[in-house]
Specification:
- By secondary structure, the chain is α/β, with parallel strands linked by helices.
- The chain has two domains: 232 residues, Rossmann fold; 70 residues, no CATH class.
- Helices cover 31% and strands 19% of the residues.
- It contains eleven helices and twelve strands.
- The chain has an eight-stranded mixed beta sheet with strand order 6-7-8-3-9-10-12-11, with helices on both faces. The chain has a four-stranded antiparallel beta sheet with strand order 2-1-4-5, covered by helices on one side.
- Helix 6 runs parallel beside helix 7.
- The mean pLDDT is 88.
- The structure holds iron/sulfur cluster and magnesium ion.
- It comes from Cohnella thailandensis.
Length: 317
């Protein structure tokens, strides 16, 4: 569970008094055991920041991360801490996260060795078993990351995240760097692994087709906030927030083709500093109205369907 997460990147002294510049601005969400919660949004919307905070790699400026009823403090505990190892992060580009001087075998053994799990021989056996599970010949244990294709490296990235037997995987654009033909293989591998190991996924992507394929529920982010959250079918069939509607309308029929971000919605992303207090989407919203100068709250408009937009606010007397 993420409770009221905030993250500011710019040092306060760069901003004049009263200005706020936040990558993430009051995000609360919970991922249910065994589900895949998708987070979708344009680059810069804060979705990766959320993923890094959820996997305890980054400390939020405000708010808390709770895992199975226990508050976890990002960055505080050692990586050996068993609580931390229950949440693992898979990078978009595994190449940047894999030490190029280590063999695949050593890269996979390391998460176990750090935690002093088993003897060397037992760990080696684990590694070979994992390699064949993720669809790589065990002979790859003696190869180096540069000898692998992008898809093979992502298999290794996933395997490495699975070595400490996590319960939750945060997958940050796990297939965005891959060819379309390879994407489906990796997504199906992720689905199979989830079913076999009762894994829970927080799945982050800018690609609405990929998110649709993977997710049970989807959160849509815009400039650091969640603007809509619903069960996947409901969100794609009946999006309610003007931003989600524009995103869903722009989904290409041809799978694997992604519209350029500029084509999704007219207008540039506004300067977040000018939006303090109001709806972040109002500079691009065709329905913007005077009241949109006030920040809309994320409210449940139908069971399980949350929207942050004044157009959809329940009537109040
Ligand atoms: Fe558009 Fe106003 Fe709704 Fe924001 S709150 S999405 S500006 S109608
Ligand atoms: Mg990102």
């Amino acid at each position: 569970e993420l409770h009221h997460i905030e993250k500011s990147y710019a040092p306060k002294r760069w901003l004049s008094r009263g200005e706020t510049l936040r990558a993430v601005d009051g995000v609360s969400l919970s991922v249910r055991k065994g589900e895949t919660l998708g987070i979708v949004g344009e680059s810069g919307c804060g979705k990766s920041t959320i993923g890094q905070i959820a996997s305890l790699m980054l400390r939020p400026t405000g708010g808390s991360v709770v895992f199975k009823g226990e508050e976890l403090v990002p960055g505080r505990r050692s990586p050996r801490d068993s609580r931390r190892s229950r949440i693992q992060y898979v990078f978009q580009d595994p190449y940047s996260s894999l030490n190029p001087r280590f063999t695949i075998g050593r890269l996979l053994e390391e998460p176990l060795a750090i935690r002093k799990k088993g003897t060397r021989r037992e760990r080696r056996r684990e590694v070979l078993r994992m390699l064949s599970r993720i669809g790589l010949d065990p002979a790859y244990a003696d190869r180096y990351p540069h000898e692998l294709s992008g898809g093979q490296r992502q298999r290794v990235g996933i395997a490495r995240a699975l070595m400490p037997s996590p319960e939750l995987l945060v997958l940050d654009e796990p297939v965005s760097a891959l060819d379309v033909s390879v994407q489906a293989q990796i997504l199906n591998l992720l689905k199979d692994l989830q079913a076999e190991r009762s894994l829970t996924y927080l799945f982050i992507s800018h690609d609405l087709n990929v998110v649709h394929y993977m997710s049970d529920r989807v959160a849509v982010m815009y400039l650091g906030r969640i603007v809509e959250l619903a069960e996947v079918g409901e969100l794609y069939d009946g999006p309610l927030h003007p931003y989600t509607r524009a995103l869903v309308d722009a989904i290409p029929d041809e799978p694997g083709t992604t519209p350029r971000e500029a084509e999704i919605i007219e207008g540039e992303l506004p300067d977040p500093r000018q939006l303090a207090g109001g709806c972040a989407f109002r500079a691009r919203c065709p329905f913007a109205h005077e009241r949109c100068g006030r920040q809309p709250l994320l409210e449940e408009v139908k069971p399980g369907h949350y929207v942050a937009c004044h157009l959809l606010e329940p009537d109040r007397d």
